[in-house]
């Protein structure tokens, strides 16, 4: 891959997009598929799965969705280098161990994280359904093409 394409992909990974399914700003993009030197436009619109978020992307999400706790606990997420993979596994117990000492704050943060996981899972399910439909359409087209060529 040329330096231009690598730079283009990296630049896209760091952008924020509005995800209509999740109804929120979602950091980054899914790793873009390069086709003949061009970014596949379907892939460019898809949000980067939460599981792959960096600590910086988690911090952006925290500031937007847990704004009332960001000032008090943002440093905790930064110091513990919480990534998307870690974020979706946080529980009230782990939050308390990290320094979120207010039970109500823990519960509210966990509720917000669960909502994020649900939205992320819905997006992933829709993507799987889209790929399945696309694959079945493609295989049907190939079968028809093969049959037509035999006549």
From TrEMBL:
GO terms for cellular component: cytoplasmic side of plasma membrane. This is SAM domain-containing protein. The lineage of its organism: Eukaryota, Metazoa, Ecdysozoa, Arthropoda, Chelicerata. It comes from the Eukaryota. GO terms for biological process: cell surface receptor protein tyrosine kinase signaling pathway. PANTHER family: PROTEIN AVEUGLE, STERILE ALPHA MOTIF DOMAIN CONTAINING PROTEIN 10. It holds the Pfam family SAM_2. InterPro entries: SAM, SAM/pointed_sf, SAM_domain-containing_protein. Residues 53-119 form the SAM domain.
């Amino acid at each position: 891959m040329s330096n231009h394409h690598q730079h283009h992909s990296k630049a896209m990974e760091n952008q924020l997009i509005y995800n209509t399914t999740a109804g929120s700003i979602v950091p980054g993009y899914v790793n873009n598929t390069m086709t003949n030197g061009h970014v596949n436009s379907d892939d460019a619109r898809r949000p980067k799965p939460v599981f792959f978020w960096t600590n910086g992307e988690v911090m952006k999400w925290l500031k937007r969705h847990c704004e009332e706790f960001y000032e008090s606990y943002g440093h905790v997420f930064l110091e513990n280098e919480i990534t998307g993979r870690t974020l979706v596994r946080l529980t009230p117990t782990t939050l308390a161990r990290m320094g979120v000492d207010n039970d109500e704050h823990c519960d509210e943060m966990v509720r917000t994280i669960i909502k994020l996981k649900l939205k992320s899972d819905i997006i992933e399910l829709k993507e799987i359904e889209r790929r399945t439909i696309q694959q079945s359409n493609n295989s049907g087209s190939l079968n028809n093409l093969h049959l037509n060529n035999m006549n």
